[in-house]
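ok so i was messing around last nite and threw this chain in just to see what happens. nothing serious, just curious
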Amino acid sequence: MQMLLSAFSHTRTRLQRMRDARFFSGWMKDLSNVSARVTMKGNPSVEIGDKFLVECHGKEKVAMFQSQVSAQSGEDIIIVVLGPITYRPTVELARVSVQGVTGMVSHDGLSIEIEVVDVSESGMGIVSSQNLPRGERIEASLHTPCGDISCAGEVRYSKPDSEQFGKFRIGIALEPLDRLASARWKLLYDTSF
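result:
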């Protein structure tokens, strides 16, 4: 089962605090049968002893378990797994966090610098200083550890980034990639787990 748990590294994680039903989101960094480390941006108001219901969205399964915060350091929390981890099939594409992926987006005659913060099999989450209208088509040139990728896609959402003043968090659904870009995208996605 340990091999299965490693498949949840760097994947999107949703947490619901049991005392007030408040939702949080973050990125699973490490998961074992006894504990986990989750990064939650923006120094969340979490206290040692808080109990959470956790959903960790992997590539093929969602891991679900109850937990209790045992330590916090900056944006990272350490949680103790309370009881068994259960699994259900995933109903959405897994998103994995990435670092060191930058590029340019072209829209309406403008070239805009971006940082890619997460990827899925067919999309990406970016941060930009420019807001992009929902439904608009963009073209992007990305610099990744797996090689440069040229792609196009549609803006699915754009909202102010809660972690960086003056920036926007934008979701892009990618159009089908050419053969080389597709191979590089798959390598980027697969090696980010």
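not much to say yet. The two ends are 16 Å apart (CA to CA).
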